[in-house]
Amino acid sequence: MLRVILFGTGNAGKAAIRAIASRTDMELVGVRVWDPAKEGVDVGTIAGIDPVGVTGTSDEAALLALEADCVLWMGAIPTTPDMGLEGLCAILASGKNLISLIHPPFMHEATVPPEMRQALLDACDTGGTTFHFTGIDPGFIAEAQGLIASSLCSRIDRIVTREILDYSSYDSSVMIFDTMQFGSPPGPQVKGFVEAMTPFQAPAMYLVADGLGATIEAITADVEVEYAEEDFEIAAGTITKGTVSAMRFWWDAIVDGKPLLTIEHVSRLKPSQRPDWAQGEGYTVTIEGEPPLEIRLTKGLNGRSDVEDAVIAAASRGVNAVPSVCAAEPGVATFLTLPLDRGRYESPA
After folding, report:
1. Cα-Cα-Cα-Cα dihedral of 176, 177, 181, 185, to 10°?
2. Can you give the pLDDT at residue 74?
3. Cys-Cys link to 171, which of 187, 235, 245, 261 (CB 3.0-4.6 A)?
4. Which of 41-45, 135-139, 201-205 has the lowest mean pLDDT?
5. Is the separation of the CB atoms in 240 and 231 below 8 Å?
6. Is the peptide bond before 275 cis (omega within 30 degrees of 0)?
7. 189-203 pLDDT, tens per residue?
8. What distances in angstroms separate CA 7 from CA 33, 87, 91, one per listed residue?
9. 349 has pLDDT over 70
């Protein structure tokens, strides 16, 4: 039985609580919360299921004193330049493996600044532990799906990973307005958001390039923006006329003077916006080569929104990685070094 501590009870954290509660090979032993209203509340109740006998706490020292095999970090995104490295190292040095959905700059050991990389490796060495970043995007779509499909090709000219999502049902005002800059007036804000996201997207591109045996010369970023023609409401609030209501942004990894890898996001608040941009919510991976291929991952098939299913998928990816990360050698583990993670069948009671 693998004992798991969870950091965070937002949308992904709630999905993780439900997933862990359904498994017979894992036990949830502690949960870190940031909202004072969740302190002392059974996390099953927070996640919308029956109580699980674990209550939320903000006491990280008490959590790290628990006997546990792994910490799943799905909580607050650190705002410090080093992405909360000290906290990550404390977890790893305490003897607990760590899987994060919110530290993509640490996805690939080779792209972490040397001094930060050494601190991470020292903590893993002290605790005999492993660090792994995963998720859906950044994560599975950009790092895994293209590499897996590349085994079907005799020649690879370009791999394009694309996310197409309607964010109108996403209820996080912080993500929609503060982070992504929806609802902002014309200006450089959206380009600034895309450039700020480069350290979160680049590691996946370097990882895939390593897997393909290619060397990246540069990574470039660009964006197109669409503005609202009228006021309208979304789950996170009001979008006013003339403000950002759709965006298409992308990164290119340049190899031999041309894009070998592209990560593109098409983000709308209304399905009718910019019909000339890619359509069909979900994720696609297109390989230009011999033979050319396109793989589509469609969500929202059960009536939920694509965004909600994406959150569940990201959380599940983290939970399903626990066994392989706990069994891995100490250090930074990536998609290139771990066995393929998989879901787990649980027989109905």
Report:
1. 140
2. 92
3. 235
4. 135-139
5. yes
6. no
7. 899 999 988 888 899
8. 7, 12, 11
9. no
All domains of the chain, ordered by start, with CATH?
A: 2-133+310-333 (3.40.50.720), 140-298 (3.30.360)
Structure-token pair, residue 110: 């080779």
Phi, psi angles (nearest 5°) of residue 162: -130, 130
Q: Which amino acid is at 303?
A: G
* Among the listed residues 287, 286, 295, 246, the one whose alpha carbon sits nearest the alpha carbon of residue 266: 246
- Cα 217 to chain centroid, rounded: 25
Contacts of 242 (CB under 8 A, 6+ apart): 185, 186, 227, 228
The phi, psi pair for 305, rounded to 5°, reads -75, 160
Query: Environment class of residue 61 by beta-carbon count within 10 Å: exposed (0-12), middle (13-18) or buried (19+)?
Result: exposed
Token representation of residue 313: 């998928």
Tokens read off for 154: 């005799």
Residues in a beta bridge with 247: 225, 267
Q: Which residue has the tokens 């080569």?
A: 289
Q: For strand 218-227 and strand 244-255, is the pairing parallel, antiparallel, or unpaired? A: antiparallel
